[in-house]
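Sequence in, structure out. First:
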Amino acid sequence: MSDDPDVVPAATRRYALIGAGAVGTALGLRLAEAGLTVEVVVSRRPETAAALAGRLGARALPLEALPETVDAVLCCVPDDALAALAEALYLLPRPWTGTVVAHTSGVHGADVLAPLAARGALPLGFHPLQAFPPGSPPRAFEGIYIGLDGPPEAVAFGRTLARRLRAHPVEIPAGGRARYHLAAVLASNYLVTLMALAEEVLGSLGLDRGTSAAMLRPLFEGTWRNLSGHLPEDALTGPIVRGDRATVRRHLDTLAGDLPHLLPVYAALASETVRVAVRSGRLHPDDARALLDLLQEALDTPENPLF
């Protein structure tokens, strides 16, 4: 269904943005660049709503003043705030039939907007698969994927809107939102965590954070270039894929003595790396079993303060 008709025309809709944080700001500016009309900006913080509205030529209004002329509402709020927002929108004394109500949450499906669907709105999960730190520019939408779910008419709208933003729409199967979001968190948030842990290890040698980051950045960028052109199994390097138990044992001994709180995460990552290495065909199953036994032995050691 790559050529869905524009069942619910994105270009003729009048949009309201609820939430003026990093995602809402970047999305609002991208909508404007695409020639779409943002009529209203709503935020818990009036000053941020006013600032974004000023950039978009829109009005900053409280939620209860959402005008009936708006027929596409984009909810860019934290995951935990969505259910309450859906209920608040449901209670507004305005017609909802045919209005698209979308949210940008990764973990929630369109069903979190069920109260509005009961009043005739078209609920849509519209999650941009991108990291949005504060100050993210509208070009952050360029070429990314946007995860969609909801009833067919809403998804058709989501496809056309994603394309107007110059992004790629992809429909997430029913019941698959949590796994979809899990993949995103692993690839983005936990990658940041891994870099922080690597910097912490270098910091334990007395290196300052700037030097640690500078040392690791070329390594990270080279690894990413390898991943950009190869499957993970083919891009993998290092002691695990070589079956180098002596090096892994030395890592484990170092962690146990100097950084014991990092031992469980190292063991977990190393165990998963063994699976990748076996899939690559470069690590013999016997060597894999020996590595897994070594990792389990380190976790089972009574001296490990976390177990």
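Second:
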Amino acid sequence: MASFADLVSVAKAAGGYTADIDPTWTVGSKVHGGALLAVLASAARTAYLDDGGEPDAAPVVISAEYLGAPDPGHIELRTDVRKRGRTTSFVTVEAVQGDRVYVQAAVTLARRDAGEERYAEPLPVDAMPPTPPADALAWDPEHPAAKIFKVGRVAEVRYDASTLPVIEGRTGPAETRGWVRLREEPLSGLFALLATDISLPVVANLGGIGWAPTITLTASVRREPVDGWLRFRASAPVVGQRWFEEDHVLVDESGHVVATSRQLAMVPAPRPPES
């Protein structure tokens, strides 16, 4: 069975590192965008450590440009430690398959936050219970969506069904809420990175069902999560005819905001009318 530890395990190679991505970490036939974030961040931290970096530094920000969607399998990770500083360090990573660069990313490494926040405004996600209620919708391996969203074989994902009117053939706000955790492994900052892209595209609730390719995604992991469930809210404040920006906020069971992200993606192409 695939594991998250295996996903983010990288091996030293000429020009950087390599990784082997199991088909479990796919949506349809292509590697899940959040899984790619975790792999890229892992390669960046490994390169930083191999360059003599401080062991308590971790990826706190990653900004990725998706030039294409790679297949699962072997992937090259070309790294360059651009800065190794006392407060922040900076590593660039390219994900290469064959002779094509599929993703290029910039990763900032530093010490993550700890303790209580100095200031925090109320967020919609605060109203959610720390763990999913009994009536939460489970996207488990038996769910029909598992044929497409295979990540659910390793990660438990449960939705607040009231934020998925699309499953009943209705439309509603461009928002989803839910909970996610690994089935058999502890949470980590790298998994929180993956989870900043865990929701199905929120434009599905507007009738935009289909592939919504991510163009660019910036995610931050401000603190290491406590083990347990991460609750998330994904939303798109504005949806255009072609583009939308989707935001994720993730809170751990201790009530702290662990990670956030914003991505620019394309609205799925309209389906042709049935004849």
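Remark: The helical segments are 4-7, 33-50, 189-195.
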